[in-house]
Description:
This protein is 65% helix and 4% strand. α1 (3-45) runs antiparallel to α8 (190-198). The chain has helices spanning 3-45, 47-50, 62-109, 115-129, 142-148, 150-165, 170-182, 190-198, 202-218, 235-238, 247-250, 270-273, 288-298; strands spanning 222-226, 244-246, 282-286. The protein has two domains: 3-203, no CATH class; 220-299, no CATH class. It contains 13 helices and three strands, in the order αααααααααβαβααβα. The longest helix is centred in the first third of the chain and has 48 residues, at 62-109.
Amino acid sequence: MNTQELIEYLQAWGGRFGERLTELLESLEKRVQGLQRAFWREVLEVFRDLFKTDGKTLKGGAKDVSGALARLERLFNRFERDYISAELRLFAAELLEVGGLTVEYYEATDGQAKIRAIQKSIALLRAVIGIDERGALIPGGYLDRLGKTEAVRQTIRSYVVNSIVSGRSLQDFQNGFRDLIVGNRETEGALQRYWRQYAYDTYNKAHEVVNTSMADELELQYFIYQGSLIETSRDFCVKRAGKVFSREQALTWKNDPDLIEPKTKDTYNPFIERGRYNCRHWLNWISDELAAELTKNNG
Length: 299
């Protein structure tokens, strides 16, 4: 491709990639909401077995607390096996799809993109997300830990214990329990909050893992900070969107006062984190020649 063809392809690929990321995120959001509703249905089916009551309030003895927690734990484990595991397999496939789209960009724009480099980058992505070549979860890997939903479990355990100890009314407990799991008009459900914190940004991170690996293999030194701007875009991203940067320049970004969570700036990786959590931008690495051309045109 000549310079103009490269620019046109980059723009077209970026448009497709951005649209697909949006589709994946919206689909994940709906699926997580569905998981919450499914978990609440599971709770309702065994509610009387989970919690001992006198018909009006929860029984508050020590045995009642320990028994409820043990039964709740079994419910968690069953839900993980019957529902979460299927979601994790789909999520893993989507992350690999993002990696494949990233490889597609390099295959089209860089004639030096070798099969070995591509295989290495996809293997790295598998290791990062925690799946083997057959697609099975690696024990202790990212997806395996994500599926344990420990933070959600702890939130629900605390709610149950506090409700039992305080002798909360049965109706009040059930209403609050439903809001905690499913959410309401004002708050998200527990799984939504959990996945938003730990999973929603993973699509972009999957891209950047493959992206950085390919850039290193091809010894690329420049990239474009890609992605559109919206009303809630951070100042950090507003200053960079659509512009060309070098590796050296990116390494100074940790000192930008607009970078969120400055207390952890020493662990900040600009090539993976970009504007940090929930950042909707990504990097497209380019050749020295294209970087010079784009910088000249923008200058």
